[in-house]
Design a protein that fits this description.
Layout lengths: L2 E6 L7 H8 L5 E4 L8 E5 L2 E5 L12 E4 L4 E2 L1 H13 L8 E3 L3 E2 L2 H14 L11 H10 L11 H22 L7 H15 L3 E2 L1 H10 L4 E4 L25 H6 L8 E7 L2 E3 L12 H10 L11 E3 L1 E2 H11 L3 E5 L9 E10 L2 E3 L6 H5 L2 E8 L16 H14 L2 E6 L7 E3 L9 H19 L1
Parallel strand pairs: 1-10, 1-11, 2-5, 2-10, 5-7, 6-8, 7-9, 11-15, 14-16, 15-19
Antiparallel strand pairs: 3-4, 12-13, 16-17, 16-18, 19-20
């Protein structure tokens, strides 16, 4: 299988980092295809904890080439800090490659992001204030700075001389924030270029050459489907496309090169920042899940909002990503509850809705319709097969799988690599072609039954 795409099926923070780390053993490169340092992956390796924001999770394997694709917006200061952290902890970083065409998050992007959020006050979107949106906006306006620009000080100065007056005017006049000095900005950016020069490459060529040799590559996104700029609960979304299709534009591959889309989700729901959240729990059960699940953002440390598992957006996410199989994470966090709930549909303005309403105003009025399942008291961190799980935990997994329409191939019962149950061996995981064929067969059977 030349390309596997790992995609979040919820609002991000689903455990994609562990998923990538678990699967990376069998691939030669891991490609990050969108987002910036507004997202983070936490990976456990024995007793060690690694928190990564830009470098792909596979960096912990010595045989992996970690690649930051052209669809990522890069804060060079964050990347340099991350490389230095990994090197200091004995992880080889000379293999890391960054697309020359990836856009740079400049200091004025961060200043603008923070100023705009502050100005919006209670109407703020809830960004991480790391400059992600303004950097993507400049890319679309065709006035962005790319990583390759950091290698030519004279050309960079010319570009910034055209860009900076408008940025400073906006910051100073509209937001009452100090602007930036051209000389200081050029010196800073050129310094980044010198430090990162050996890591820059044409990553699309690199990816295509490896795939032409028959190598298996893993593509990982940041955030999740429900935060997708086009398919999420707009405007409470990120500024890029975390869905599987984003791997093509941001990673440098074609649709026919994707042979597996592995969707990742938690056994419950979480969300960071503002926006509607139909199954949100604000009681003692929710507080318990936050504490047991350590639900605090890797990047910002913000407390995540938690809720019961929601099957409505799950069906939508499986469809728009052409998910072939699923990894279910953090089912261990539900241990000890008397019962667990799954949202099966919504009631909106007195009507039942089974399909995800990506309109945030409609979603804000949605009332969850739940089905209740008996819980389990036993801790499950030591389980290594489905038969080891308590019966009620197995029933819960079966119910989630049935509702998703895709097979759950992996079940995580803890944060470490070995705390993963392979429900389907790797060679038996469905491909996108087989999964779509099964979906078409089911749809045809249902249509026949209706006639």
């Amino acid at each position: 299988m030349p390309a596997t795409v790992i995609v979040g099926l919820q609002w991000g923070d689903e455990g994609k980092g562990k998923t990538t780390d678990f699967l990376a053993e069998d691939v030669t490169a891991v490609v990050r295809y969108q987002g910036g340092d507004n997202a983070g992956h936490t990976i456990m390796l024995g007793e060690e904890v690694f928190k990564l924001h830009l470098v792909p999770s596979g960096v912990l394997y010595p045989h992996i080439t970690p690649i930051i694709g052209n669809g990522v917006v890069v804060n060079p200061a964050t990347l340099i800090s991350e490389i230095e952290m990994l090197s200091a902890r004995g992880i080889a970083t000379d293999r890391i490659r960054v697309s020359k065409h990836a856009h740079v998050i400049m200091p004025y992007h961060i200043a603008l992001d923070g100023a705009m959020e502050a100005r919006l006050a209670s109407a703020a979107v809830g960004t991480t204030r790391r400059g992600i949106g303004p950097a993507y906006a400049d890319r679309a306006w065709r006035i962005g700075i790319r990583m390759e620009d950091l290698l030519d000080g004279a050309a960079l100065r010319g570009k910034l001389a055209r860009i900076l007056p408008e940025k400073n005017a906006t910051l100073q006049r509209q937001h009452r924030v100090d602007g930036f000095d051209l000389d200081e900005l050029v010196a800073l950016a050129v310094g980044w270029g010198r430090r990162l020069e050996n890591h820059l490459a044409d990553t699309t060529q690199l990816v295509q050459e490896r795939m032409a040799r028959g190598e298996h590559l893993l593509f990982e996104g940041a955030q999740g489907t429900l935060l997708d700029l086009d398919h999420g609960s707009y405007p409470f979304v990120t500024s890029s496309n975390p869905i599987a299709g984003g791997a093509c534009t941001g990673g440098g591959i074609g649709p026919l090169q994707v042979t597996e889309v592995l969707g990742v989700m938690k056994a419950y729901a979480t969300r960071v920042g503002a926006g509607p959240f139909p199954t949100e729990l604000t009681d003692e059960i929710g507080e318990g899940i936050i504490d047991r699940g350590r639900e605090f953002g890797t990047t910002t440390g913000r407390r995540r909002r938690v809720g019961w598992f929601d099957a409505v957006p799950l069906r939508y996410a499986v469809a728009v990503n052409s998910v072939s199989s699923i990894m279910l994470n953090k089912i261990d966090i539900l241990s000890g509850l008397d019962e667990v709930l799954i949202c099966m549909a919504y009631e909106v303005d007195g009507k039942r809705i089974d399909w995800w309403p990506s309109d945030a105003d409609v979603l804000a009025r949605a009332k969850p319709i739940y089905e209740r399942f008996p819980g389990w008291k036993e801790p499950i961190h030591g389980c290594r097969s489905m038969s080891d799980l308590p019966e009620n935990a197995r029933r819960y997994v079966d119910a989630v799988e049935r509702l998703s329409g895709a097979q759950i191939c992996l079940v995580s019962v803890g944060p470490e690599r070995n705390q993963t149950i392979e429900r389907l061996p790797r060679l038996q995981r469905p491909t996108t072609a087989s999964a779509l064929g099964s979906a078409a067969t089911r749809a045809g059977s249902e249509a026949t039954a209706e006639r």
